[in-house]
Each structure stands twice: as structure tokens, then as C-alpha cells.
Amino acid sequence: MTSELGGAKRARYGLDADRRLARKADFERLLKDGTRRSRSGFTLFVATRAGGPPRLGILISRKHAAKATVRNRIKRCIREAFRLEQPGLGALDVLVRPPYGARPGVAMLRQLRGLFSELGK
User: Fold this and answer.
1) How far apart, in whole angstroms, are the C-alpha atoms of residue 104 and residue 101?
2) CATH of the domain at 54
3) Domain hosting residue 95, numbered range
């Protein structure tokens, strides 16, 4: 499941630095200019780009879950759903804010995969 890219092997469905929103300016641009979509309590800010892989950003605070371990599990669910659905997304930037009190698990993963697959259409 790797593809040859410039001599280095790279995972086809990986979530490396090229597929993450890391700069504050990217987050602010999405919050200000991105299309806001709310589904199932999740708020998604979406913007298209000229090219490149889809990129993911996650907004989560202590209001979402008091314990850091729960927040980390929520982030893992979001990243995994994005990782599995990224081939159908195209050149999108997606910022995800989960609902307050969200519980990580299989149900959340299914819900997020459905949301990400809707974005790719």
C-alpha cells in the first residue's frame, strides 16, 4: 500500500505534514472565508485550493471534553475518518470542530466518514 514518489516510499493513505493545516494563517483563513457546514453537531469549515492533497485542521478545546485523553481520542477519530476518506476529497482544506460533549468511538468514526464523503461529492 505504498506508492513510489520521487524515490521515497510513501503511504497511500497516510496523514503526513502535507495533509495537515498547521499555520495560524490557514486556520484564520478558513474561519473567515471558508464555507461553514454544520451536520450532526460537527461544524466544518471548507475551502477549495488550486491543487495538492486535501488538508485537515481540528479545533478542540477543554469545553469539548475536560480530560485530555478524551480530547485526544476525539482527534484520533477525526484524523482516522479523514485518512480513510481523503482519496475522494480533492484539493480541499477542511477544519473540523466537534460538538461539545462528543464521545469518541465507532459511531463517531462512521458519522465523520459520512460527512467527509459528502464533501467529496
Assistant:
1) 10
2) 3.30.230.10
3) 14-119
Distance in angstroms (rounded) separating the CA atoms of residues 58 and 56: 7
Task: With beta carbons less than 8 A apart as the criterion, state whether 92 and 49 touch.
Answer: yes
DSSP 66: S
Alpha-carbon torsion (90, 95, 99, 101), positive or negative: positive
In a domain, 95, yes or no: yes
pLDDT at residue 2 tops 50: no
pTM above 0.90, yes or no: no
* All three cell numbers of 45: 469549515
Q: pLDDT grade, residue 89 (50/70/90)? A: confident
The residue among 89, 103, 95 whose CA lies nearest residue 53 is 89
Confidence of residue 19 (pLDDT cuts 50, 70, 90): confident
Cβ-based neighbours of 93, under 8 Å, separated by 6 or more: 21, 26, 30, 34, 46, 47, 48, 49, 54, 55, 57
